[in-house]
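// run 5 | inverse folding | seed 20
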């Protein structure tokens, strides 16, 4: 291994990333917004939100930044279709469908027939159909269903691309770029970050942690994962491994070790996709102080963790927190019942 030459310059990191095939799907750089009203309400540190919900494609989100590289690879391979799938309200799948539409290839979404899907076509799932994706809901083994579809398409003479581990690595590469943007934007504003926070259990945090270390940003990077369980140690080891695979892929000498990663499910609640009261409060508070929407599955829960740390003084008043907003807002509409109940909203009719 080369001797790590840290800190690296933003230019050197960009040059390293640009060695990989890439298509410009995302509108970059995304804005970094100061949130003084939110800071005031929390009585806490300065809070800046990195708006990766505004990556531009089909309501945006972190996957679009990642797909600059995934779809660069898909184009390099000459694929005519892409297969992926996760939960029925998956943001990843919606952004895949949008990227595929823009690239002129067919998206196949093999989604889980989970509780949300039984409530009908709404939120991200509605957008999947509008984007022209071929949508299937699976009961049972989702990976097997994807693999079978892959074989079926190949047998028909098609050239499918099945998204998998390499896309997670490319996602981490993409998020090195996000760290570079944050560093440059903060420099311009004359601030520096003490804490970087985000909703993530894998590639997004891996890339930010790698980028922050390579740039010598000197801040902590905390991920709030959307799923319950998994041992913190195993999750952090996986994130460090993704970071290091990304580093290797783009020829960086820097490596990240698991004990440099912080990731928690403390604010996840009962399970993935089940909203919490603290999440509902975070969604409302950020909307009502800054006019910014958070999603109910990832970002709202992560922000509820930031709220808690501000209130406990873990993030003191004199610090600066950069919160990376990873998107997911179309899922708000699939959580209509929960949000209406939590807010106690009633329609007021006026006769005039
Ligand atoms: C997918 C997703 C994440 C998690 O990204 P990872 O890189 O897989 O950790 C976070 N927030 C939103 C809104 C997402 O859609």
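// decoded
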């Amino acid at each position: 291994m080369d001797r790590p030459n840290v800190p690296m310059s933003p230019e050197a990191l960009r040059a390293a990333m640009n060695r990989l095939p890439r298509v410009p799907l995302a509108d970059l750089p995304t804005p970094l917004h100061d949130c003084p009203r939110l800071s005031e309400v929390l009585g806490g540190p300065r809070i800046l939100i990195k708006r990766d919900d505004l990556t531009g494609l089909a309501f945006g989100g972190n996957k679009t930044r990642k797909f600059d590289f995934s779809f660069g690879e898909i184009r390099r391979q000459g694929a005519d279709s892409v297969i992926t799938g996760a939960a029925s309200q998956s943001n990843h799948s919606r952004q895949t469908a949008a990227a595929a539409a823009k690239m002129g290839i067919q998206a196949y979404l093999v989604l889980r027939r989970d509780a949300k899907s039984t409530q009908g076509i709404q939120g991200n799932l509605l957008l999947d159909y509008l984007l022209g994706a071929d949508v299937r809901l699976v009961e049972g083994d989702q990976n097997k269903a994807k693999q079978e579809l892959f074989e079926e398409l190949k047998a028909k003479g098609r050239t499918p691309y099945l998204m998998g581990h390499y896309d997670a690595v490319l996602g981490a590469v993409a998020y090195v770029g996000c760290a570079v943007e944050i560093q440059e934007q903060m420099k311009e504003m004359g601030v520096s970050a003490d804490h970087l926070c985000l909703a993530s259990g894998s590639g997004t945090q891996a890339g930010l942690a790698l980028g922050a270390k390579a740039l010598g940003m000197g801040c902590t990077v905390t991920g709030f994962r959307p799923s319950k369980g998994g041992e913190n140690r195993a999750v952090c080891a996986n994130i460090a491994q993704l970071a290091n695979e990304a580093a290797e892929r783009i020829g960086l000498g820097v490596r990240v070790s698991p004990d440099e990663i912080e990731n928690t499910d403390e604010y996840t609640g009962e399970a993935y996709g089940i909203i919490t009261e603290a999440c509902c409060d975070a969604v409302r508070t950020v909307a009502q102080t800054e006019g910014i929407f958070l999603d109910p599955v990832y970002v709202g829960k992560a922000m509820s963790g930031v709220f808690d740390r501000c209130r406990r003084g873990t993030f003191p008043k004199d610090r600066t927190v950069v919160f990376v907003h990873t998107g997911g807002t179309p899922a708000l509409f699939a959580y209509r019942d929960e949000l209406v109940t939590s807010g106690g909203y009633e329609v007021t009719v006026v006769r005039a």
